[in-house]
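Hey, I'm writing a tutorial for new members on how sequence and structure tokens pair up, and I'd like a real worked example in the thread rather than a made-up one. If someone can provide the structure for the chain below, I'll link this post from the tutorial.
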Amino acid sequence: MVLFVTDADSFLADHMLSAEVFGPATLLIKYSSNDQLLKIARGLEGQLTATIQASEAELRNCADLIAILEAKAGRLVCNGFPTGVEVGDAMVHGGPFPATSDGRSTSVGTRAALRFVRPVCYQDFAEAALLDELKDANPLGIWRMIDGERTRN
């Protein structure tokens, strides 16, 4: 884990300080006014997560900040730390670039595989000419989505 510290004026003057970093690193920005904080937030690019550490009293004054972060991040965290993500149907972790590389998909969860799919349609093929995965009889017994419902039939 690495902790970097800078002040608001330096952060706003140097765009390299806002570059995304993957891994256990934190950039702490010291600011002196709410206006500085909002200016910093408006200048952020898309993020996977945004975290606010604040008391209940402080949160009552964070509506402007939260509204900005809603447009910047795919997941907002309050008084916690971003966790790992599960590859499950309910997990969607979108947001502006770079949170997703394609706004029609998500970067985590089962739908993340759609980022790497090139759909091919087999029109009017005889059943015998189709891949087993595509046959009506489903000889592999795999889960499939048919007419919006999951089935093994």
